[in-house]
Design brief:
With 404 residues, the chain is of the alpha+beta class. The protein contains 16 helices and twelve strands. Bound molecules: thymidine-5'-triphosphate and magnesium ion.
Length: 404
């Protein structure tokens, strides 16, 4: 499934809400932040008509009054803005369950899974704009691209009442001509340094030899250049998006048999990997947790080069970590697995860059389907140990629920 991420930002949000409440304000230079008599304070937003005079957010009211003396100045009504914001959110949630509000008037939506249902990006955007108009009468701008970064930059380019769709593979080309200031993370200090190297556009940064960039910015050079190329894998995070997935088991009697411990670990790895895939996510960091006799607890972690959701790869990492845990002679009271550095599953990246095959993903998909229908226990690999050899499952000792 191709990853399609939508970014939506309402146009001149506070001012637009006021214009809906009082239509006589439409088409007029409207400035929200304070009354004309308020001496202090800053502009929170200005209608596009007021922006023509150079008025913008965060500008002192006094300056705004000087630039736009005939403007209409209002304090604003936050309860109304929140109400409109919630209506927008519920429209977005009717398109996809994966919605991340980024501010009162801005959100990301993972619409990868909504493509077929709605008939593609253009139809999704048209549907949202129409529904928001019906529910709130407010204008908004939408961008859809393979990731949050590119969509966020793009909405700003096509405001107000805009829409843009950037196809997979076009990210770098789209960003190339834009001024460096448009790239999140390229603040004034960074830009000042880069300009000395003749970097003025995002494309210039993307094309700069990485060695040069590393000399100036150290290891963060790579991330900076990846962003300049429009690459980003950060997931759209909902309230239910897990930050980590873990599972652990406490034994009835402390165990010294590492073959058995290993089998329990394989079982725990399969369970966490299953939960991971249920969430449509991948992990980059696998942690082995061991509590020895006497309650001393140690964790051993390994970060992968490529994220994965494949059982065998997670188990492989645990096998690498086990010898370290075994250095201690003590018996084991508890053993656990935690998966962190989670991101949305990137089938695309996998097919081209990853080592593991598409076939594996297919197999796991069908295994998960059977498990979803008939329960997890119906399929288990030969090396994993059955639940009966663990103490009172589920209720107390296993950290159930998976997501923490
Ligand atoms: P923005 O989306 O940054 O601005 P906007 O919606 O007014 O205009 P645009 O069409 O360019 O998106 O911010 C959303 C709301 O947040 C804005 O209407 C008012 C509030 N806000 C402040 O109160 N103070 C600020 O400094 C900014 C930037 C926004
Ligand atoms: Mg806005």
């Amino acid at each position: 499934m191709k990853r399609r991420i939508l970014h939506i930002d309402m146009d001149a949000f506070f001012a637009s809400v006021e214009q809906v409440l009082d239509p006589s304000l439409r088409g007029k230079p409207l400035i929200i932040g304070g009354e004309k008599t308020d001496l202090r304070g800053v502009v929170s937003t200005a209608s596009y008509e007021a922006r023509k005079f150079g008025v913008h957010s965060a500008m002192p009211l006094a300056t705004a009054k000087r630039l736009c003396p005939h403007g209409i100045f209002m304090r604003g009504n936050h309860a109304r803005y929140r109400e409109a914001s919630l209506k927008v959110r519920s429209v977005l949630e009717s398109v996809s369950p994966i919605v991340e509000p980024a501010s009162i008037d801005e959100a990301y939506v993972d619409v990868s899974g909504s493509q077929r249902l709605f008939g593609g990006d253009d139809a999704i955007a048209a549907f949202i704009k129409k529904r928001i108009r019906e529910e709130t009468s407010l204008p908004c701008t939408i961008a859809i691209s393979p990731n949050k970064l590119v969509s966020k930059i793009a909405t700003d380019q096509v405001k107000p009442d805009g829409y843009i769709c950037i196809a997979e593979g076009e990210e770098a080309g789209y960003l190339r001509p834009l001024p460096l200031a448009k790239l999140p993370g390229a603040g004034p200090r960074t830009r000042e340094v880069l300009e000395r190297y003749g970097v003025h556009t995002i494309g210039d940064l993307a094309a700069l030899p990485i060695g040069t960039l590393e000399k100036v910015f150290g290891p963060s050079a790579h991330g900076l250049q990846r962003r300049a190329r429009g690459e980003s894998t950060s997931p759209v995070e909902t309230d239910s998006t897990p930050k980590s997935i873990s599972r652990e088991t406490t034994f009835e009697h402390d165990l010294g048999d590492w073959d058995k411990l290993e089998r329990v670990l394989v079982y725990l790895a399969e369970r966490t990997a299953y939960t991971l895939r249920e969430h449509g996510m991948e992990t980059k960091c696998v942690t082995l947790k061991v509590r020895y006799t006497g309650f001393d607890t140690k964790t051993f972690a390994h970060t992968l080069d490529e994220p994965t959701s494949v059982d065998s790869e997670i188990i492989g990492v645990l096998h690498q970590l086990l010898p370290k845990a075994r250095e201690r002679r003590d018996k084991v009271r508890l053993i656990g697995v935690a998966l962190t550095s989670l991101s949305r599953n990137q089938h695309q990246l996998r097919l081209f860059g990853g080592q593991h095959s598409e076939k594996w993903e297919k197999v796991l998909e069908s295994v998960d389907k059977v498990r979803g229908r008939h329960g997890f226990e119906t399929i288990r690999t030969a090396k994993s140990v059955p639940r009966s050899s663990m103490r009172s499952p589920r209720t107390h000792n296993e950290n159930d629920g998976g997501a923490t």
